[in-house]
Design a protein that fits this description.
The complex is a heterodimer. Chain A is an all-alpha fold. Chain A is about 75% helix and about 0% strand. Chain A is globular and about 55 Å long. Chain B is about 75% helix and about 0% strand. The chains are: A mainly alpha, B mainly alpha.
């Protein structure tokens, strides 16, 4: 075993271990913190692959952005300090079995068929990524970039509509009429 | 370049423009009346639909990220038409709603996502289009804002679509690892030298697709989501969203994964048999109309998959033709349910007993829609299923056709059960007479007209066939 392989296994064990802790801990805040470590481990894996830019993006976006967002939203809920109910034994056994099956299945597939990756070389210099991101010609990614912005706009509108619904003072077009209607149909449903 | 851009992407640009018009209407200082917004949107949707029939060209843009052709424009026109019909049908529901511009913004962004997905010639664009067409839909499923069931439906939808996107992404990343490219043409060229990694990636892709078109065994989310969502969203989910994904599935299978066809032939065989049988069996015992239509739409997907197992051109032409008819027939049924639900809030099959006595016009519309779904001649649904089975029989697979024919008999029973309830059974408290306002009336006319005209005129199938 070479040093590189040893580092890979250490990193993978770190990622998997923290991920398992993240889904098994009963305090939701701790789950978020374990997720943070797991994501840092993935960034380490990218460093190991020598794709420094992706590793930096992983740290900035996932570790810096998304986990902080998750922690904020946990603080906004009322349940952040409480311990969650213990999972029933049947569910634990079933999930362990599912994990074992998935692992065995993947191992069997790789062992029997020896998946071979494509042999295409990639150029991941930052300047190439930058020019591709804004390019409109061959290999340019400006159209997907714009589509993602529309997706963000739509997601934001959707969130606002859902979040605004519980505010009693919001200006409604015909709120009174609406509510009587809905309560009536609720009874029928 | 600019001319190309404006002409080739005109349908996408039109929808984007509509989204922004609605955004500015919402942000305006003066609040617009619901009636005004609805009238304007419906006119704009009609203009958008009509514009799709002109200046149709073939070409690619953004370095092969986006492609279009007569066939793809036609598919987009079908989706545009369906969206217009749904918009007209939900007029009376939306009139009382607090967030009309937002509803349309979300609906149009999903439509835009479907357009990009249909036009994609790259796995990245395909995935983004798929996400754009499913994430806003979850918010739309929550649009009965005061009902818990609606929130539940939205939650279930977003969870299952996230899970299926996960499968799809895993498949895409494996495919990328095996071929080193995201472009469809290069992938299909690379697939000629088959490796097991590619097959595994393909299985994951098919599972992701299966979730989106709710084929058995990936169908479990369908009934709950359909039941909980507002009727407009349910019909949008079951017709437009499913139709768009079927269009993409057909073109991806035949154009990109053609080298793997012996593998996907077996998979589709199994999935389509399971889908037909289980969809039918569950549809037999449903009491809620929306749930009933959910399971019937699952079994319809089974029939569509039979068409896909056939030879390439015949298969895709029959699928596109069937989806077009399915738009008309399913929306005719959903339109009636939507009107009744908005006026009285009643959605059970038992409520429809004696429906003919109080609402003869709606009864006929619903009956024609159900006949077409069941595939009774002379309605268009018969020809749709006929061409699907014909395409499936093209490969000499008569077992599949026999199973499909038996399933059609079963489906006939449960469609006719509703028709019997409407016309023959008595009811002490029938649904009172529902007033049909102008917009739903037009929608109903388009649907019923579409069913009858495409049933009698054989030109439509020939036209689609000639587009390949």
């Amino acid at each position: 075993m070479t040093a590189s392989q040893i580092i890979f296994y250490i990193l993978s064990a770190f990622i998997l271990g923290t991920a398992i802790l993240s889904v098994t801990t009963r305090k939701i805040f701790r789950a978020a913190i374990w997720l943070l470590f797991s994501l840092i481990g993935v960034a380490g894996l990218y460093f190991w692959l020598e794709v420094e830019f992706i590793a930096a993006v992983q740290i900035v976006v996932y570790v810096g952005g998304i986990v902080v967002l998750i922690i904020f939203s946990i603080f906004l809920t009322e349940q952040s300090g409480k311990e969650m109910a213990k999972a029933p034994l049947v569910r634990t056994i079933a999930s362990v079995l599912a994990v074992l099956f998935g692992f065995a299945f993947t191992y069997l597939l790789i062992h029997n068929y020896g998946f071979r990756a494509g042999d295409k070389k990639f150029d991941w210099s930052v300047s190439k990524i930058g020019s591709q991101m804004m390019g409109t010609g061959e290999g340019g990614y400006s159209l997907p970039f714009e589509v993602v912005s529309i997706l963000l706009l739509a997601a934001m509108i959707g969130c606002i509509v859902i979040a605004i619904k519980n505010q009693p003072g919001s200006p409604a077009v015909s709120q009174e009429n609406d509510q009587t209607k809905n309560s009536k149909s609720d009874e029928n449903a | 370049m600019l001319n190309d851009f404006l002409i080739l992407m005109k349908q996408e640009l039109g929808v984007t423009l509509l989204i922004f018009i609605l955004l500015f209407i919402k942000l305006a200082k003066k609040e617009w009346k619901n009636e005004t917004v609805l009238g304007l949107v419906n006119i704009l949707l009609f203009v958008n639909l009509a514009a799709g029939f002109f200046f149709i060209h073939k070409g690619t843009l953004f370095g092969d990220m986006f492609r279009t052709s007569e066939l793809l424009s036609f598919e987009k026109n079908i989706l545009n038409l369906g969206t217009l019909i749904i918009s007209l049908q939900s007029y009376s529901w939306l009139k009382q709603h607090k967030h009309v511009p937002e509803f349309y913004m979300l609906m149009l962004s999903t439509l835009l996502g479907m357009f990009f997905m249909i036009s994609s010639s790259n796995l990245l664009m395909f995935y983004l289009g798929l996400e754009l067409s499913s994430i806003p839909l979850a918010a739309m499923a929550n649009f009965d804002l005061d009902k818990k069931r609606s929130s539940e439906a939205a939650m279930k939808f977003i969870m299952s679509s996230a899970f299926s996107s996960g499968l799809l992404l895993f498949g895409i990343s494996m495919l990328y690892g095996a071929t080193g490219t995201l472009s469809f043409s290069e992938i299909s060229w690379q697939l000629t030298t088959l490796s097991s990694l590619q097959v595994f990636a393909f299985i994951l892709l098919i599972a992701g697709f299966g979730f989106k078109i709710s084929a058995v065994p990936f169908h479990l989310w369908t009934a709950d989501v359909y039941e909980g969502s507002p009727v407009a969203v349910t019909s949008y989910l079951s017709v437009i969203s499913k139709g768009a994904i079927l269009f993409v599935l057909v073109s991806v299978l035949y154009n990109v994964f053609q080298p793997l066809d012996s593998a996907w032939y077996k998979m589709l065989f199994l999935v389509s048999v399971l889908t037909m049988i289980i969809g039918n069996l569950f549809a037999l015992r449903q009491q809620n109309m929306k749930r009933f239509l959910a399971f019937s739409s699952i079994s319809q997907v089974g029939f569509i998959l039979i068409g896909i197992t056939g030879e390439s051109i015949q298969g895709s032409a029959s699928v596109i033709y069937f989806v077009m008819i399915y738009v008309f027939s399913n929306l005719a049924a959903f339109g009636v349910i939507s009107l009744v639900s908005a006026a009285t809030g009643r959605e059970n099959v038992d409520d429809y007993k004696g429906f003919y006595k109080t609402n003869p016009v709606l009864s006929w519309a619903l009956t024609i829609g159900l006949f077409s779904l069941a595939g009774i001649p002379p309605t268009a649904g018969f020809f749709g299923k006929f061409f699907l089975l014909l395409a499936g029989a093209g490969k000499g697979n008569y077992w599949l056709i026999t199973i499909a024919a038996l399933n059609m008999v079963v489906s006939l029973y449960y469609y006719l059960r509703i028709v019997k309830a409407i016309f023959m059974e008595a009811n002490d408290t029938p649904i009172e007479n529902v007033k049909i306002s102008f917009a739903p009336k037009i929608a109903m006319l388009i649907c019923v007209g579409g069913i009858i005209i495409t049933g009698f005129a054989s030109g439509a199938y020939k036209y689609i066939y000639s587009l390949f």
